Amino acid sequence: QVNSPTNGAFDFSDLTVDNIERIEVIRGPQSTLYGSDAIGGVIHVITKRGSGKVSGFLSSEFGSFNTFHERAGVSGGTERVDYALSMSRIDSNGISRANDDRGNSEGDGYDNTTVSGRFGLNVFGDGRIDFTGRYTNANTDSDSEFLFTDAGQLLPADDPNSVQERDTIIAALTLSKPITSWWDQRLQLSLNDDDLNAQDLDSATAFSPPADNSFRIDIQGRRLDWQHDITITDAVIVTAGYELEDQVGNIAGSFRETILNQAGYGQVQLNPVDALSLVFGGRFDSNNRFGDEATYKASGAYVIEQTGTTIRSSYGTGFRGPSLNDLFFPAVNFGGIVFSGNPNLKAETSEGVDAGVEQVLFGGKLLVGATYFYNSFNDLIASTIDADAGVSLPMNINKARAQGVEVDVQFSPIDGLDIGANYTHTTSRDQDTNRRLARRPVDKGSVNVGYSPVAELHLNTDIFLIGDSFSDNENVNEVQGYGLVNLAGSYDVTQHIQAFVRVENLFDQQYEEVLGFGTFGRSAFGGLKFTF
User: Fold this and answer.
1) Whose CA is closest to 243, among 24, 23, 45, 32?
2) Which of 403, 411, 405, 441 is nearest to 423 (CA)?
3) 285 near 261, Cβ under 8 Å?
4) SS3 (DSSP) at 328
5) What is the pLDDT of residues 29-43, one digit of tens each?
6) Is 436 exposed, middle or buried, given 0-12, 13-18 or 19+ CB atoms closer than 10 A?
7) Regions of the chain with pLDDT less than 70
8) What is the CB-side half-sphere exposure of residue 268 using CA atoms within 13 A?
9) Comparing C-alpha atoms, which of 161, 217, 220, 226 is closest to residue 187?
10) What is residue 205's predicted lDDT score, i.e. its pLDDT?
11) Which of 30-50 are b and which e, b meaning 16 or more Cβ less than 10 Å from the residue's Cβ?
């Protein structure tokens, strides 16, 4: 688990895709198996596992904004040992993090060095030891000043003295060893160590003295998870486990706080008939900051083989405790706004239900799926800004809900052509004020077309359509919707040499994802990859 103990989130901007095998997404409350922070779903990033003879690659890419990206990796394995190791480096002049269309001209550069690996050893007959690790050092120029406009908008502005360096270590050691033919177990120890060092020295002006807004945040998350899978019969599998998590957040000179959580969980998988699958589970957490919490989930799926139809549904509860930042962040003045924590926060709780159907047509060439979902939240934690008082702090929204429909289509009419489309309509409201929740567009859609006219050539087109949203829970500042088109292609020049190119934001769309923050215009990148 890689969520930050201080802000409860994970910074995807520093995650490179080198050495990643696949990414799985589970929607809906998942607190039963995954605990706090899985209130709305789980994103599972799986590192590659090496196998076979020694192989490797070297890659170099260059593109817009004077961007360079170099990568290298090696992998392999035997019946006893396997390994996969990769390294990458990114350097870019970047763009202004505060939108240059709003008068911010200072470029904010970025660099990233990442080393990632997975190493496995088969031991004790049918046992296995797995080590997965990732180290990232990222440096970025940032814009941490804030300005109020006449319309009451709080917008980021150029800050030429603000830089941030982040060192992150993510590591997990897993021991798997069956006890009997029907009883399997897995013991995992993991570490998430994140050190953020921010430097922001503002010079004196005619209106203000010199200011030092620098800070350093050092966080650690240590976790033990002991899971058991017991096969009662071919139709009944029981999963049970114990989890211990210790999270520490330290802001130099301000606070050092800890969150300690213990949990027991259990789940039963039933297959009473081949076409029917049922899952029931529950979890009990005991936390030193927000007390005890019980969650549960039930789900099922039924497959009608004669028609290629799958019917599925789930119901579950979840919770998310306030993070260390939510509770204890010290009062800091950024651009005239005092940001601070709120020690009176309560944990968020959620209740979610979904029901859907998938239909296979034309001999498997077409897959159509539709899902209805409804999620309700109590004590949802949201940041609020009082412009008149110049204060920003997290607050509990009494009740909120989100409901909608998602439609997916996968179509492969001919060999080498794959078309995927997705559309989601979501209405989310604060039920006390009836206002929309911040940064949640009502409509989102995407289309992906992959085409390989010959084995050596791969072409890909992505289209994204994002509707309007609000940047605040007061629904004052609207963020306009936008559409993007991205192109990519690769060609295998020889068995060991591949050329690739991609163009992002093909039509140079001017847009914002978050009010006031910059986004990339049309940009192009290309390079070569050598394999052995």
Assistant:
1) 32
2) 405
3) yes
4) helix
5) 787 888 777 877 899
6) buried
7) 5-6, 144-153, 202-211, 253, 332-336, 386-389
8) 8
9) 226
10) 46
11) bbbbbbbbbbbebeebebbbb
